[in-house]
Amino acid sequence: MGNVLILNYHRIIDDERECVGDSSLTDKQTVKKSDLIHQLNSIQAAGIPIIELDQWNKAGFHDQFAVALTFSGGYKSDSEIVLPLLKSLGLTATFFPTLSIIDTEDGVSWKDLKSLIDNGMEVGSQGVSGQNLRRISKSACQLELELSKRIIENNLGKKVVFFASSTGNYNRRLLQLAYNAGYQKVLTNRAKINTNTLTLLQHRFTVKANTNISTLEKLIVKGLLSHSKRPLYAKLSSLLSVEFGIGIFNKEYINGYSRW
C-alpha cells in the first residue's frame, strides 16, 4: 500500500499584492503564495505525484509515495488564489470550510464552494464553529459533525465524506461520532506520513508561515525512502533538486534516516 503525506494550509496571501503592513502577514496560519508555489514545484520536481484524497486507495498508487493537498478554514483565498493556482498546475485539493465563516467578509461564499466542486476539487467539513470538539459535550459534538455535513451536502449537492478537526485535536468519542455520521475519513494535525490509508483517522502536516522547511523535507525524504527499491544513494542521487534549497539531502538525513 502506498504511503501518503497530507499537507494542510490555511489562509494564502498574494505577497506581491498584499500591503506590507497587513496584519495577515504576521498570522502564523498564513502562508505566502510564493512559498506555496515553491513547495508544490519542489514536490513535482522530485517526481512525487500529488493526488486527491480519494485516490490513495485506487489502483496505481499502492506501491508509491504520494502527497495530497488540503486547505482548511474556508478563507476567501481558497477561491481567489488557490483555485487559479491549482488549475494552472493541473492539481486538485480538498477544502475544509468552517460553516461559520462562509459568506463572511474573509470567507468563501457558497458560490465559491460550488466553483471549487465544478473545477474538480473536493469539499469536506470542518464543523460549524471551529471549536475544539474534545471540549464540548457529546451531543454538541454530534451536532457539529452531522449539521455541517448535512448543510454542505444540501448546498453543494455532493456527498461529504471527509471531516477535518479544526484544532487538530481528537479522541475516541470524536472518531466514533464521525463514523456514525457517515464520514469515511477524519483528518487531524500531526507531522506524520500515513502508512495505512484504509483507517478512519489520517494525519496531516500543517504548513504555517514559520514552518521549518527542513521538517517538511525530512517527511518527504522518509516517504521516498520507504518505497525505494534501489540502493539508498542511487535513489537520492536521482532525486537531487535545488528547489527545496539546503538540507534535503544533507549528511544528517542520510545517516539518520533509519531512526525516523
Task: Present the secondary structure layout.
Layout: E1 4-9, E2 12-13, E3 31-32, H1 33-45, E4 50-51, E5 66-73, H2 77-89, E6 94-97, H3 110-118, E7 122-123, H4 138-156, E8 162-164, H5 172-181, E9 185-189, E10 201-206, H6 213-226, H7 232-238, H8 251-256
Parallel strand pairs: 1-5, 1-10, 2-3, 4-5, 5-6, 6-7, 8-9, 9-10
Helix pairs in contact: 4-5
Would you kindly provide a written description of the structure presented here, covering whatever features stand out?
The protein is 35% helix and 15% strand. The strands form 2 sheets. Strands 1, 4, 5, 6, 7, 8, 9 and 10 form an 8-stranded parallel beta sheet that branches. A two-stranded parallel sheet has the order 2-3. The longest helix has 19 residues, at 138-156. It has one domain: TIM Barrel, CATH 3.20.20. It starts with a strand and ends with a helix. It is of the alpha/beta class and 260 residues long. It has helices at 33-45, 77-89, 110-118, 138-156, 172-181, 213-226, 232-238, 251-256, and strands at residues 4-9, 12-13, 31-32, 50-51, 66-73, 94-97, 122-123, 162-164, 185-189, 201-206.
Structural class: alpha/beta
Level-1 CATH class name: Alpha Beta
Assigned CATH superfamily: Glycoside hydrolase/deacetylase
Assembly type: single chain
**CATH architecture title:** Alpha-Beta Barrel
Order of helices and strands: EEEHEEHEHEHEHEEHHH
CA-based gyration radius: 18 Å
Fraction in helix: 25-40%
Number of domains: 1
Report strand %. 15-25%
Instruction: Please give the largest β-sheet.
Output: 8 strands, parallel
How many helical elements? 8
The total strand number stands at: 10
Low-confidence stretches at least 5 residues in length (pLDDT < 50)? Answer: 230-260
Mean pLDDT: 82
CATH topology: TIM Barrel
Cα(first) to Cα(last) distance is 19 Å
| Shape type | globular
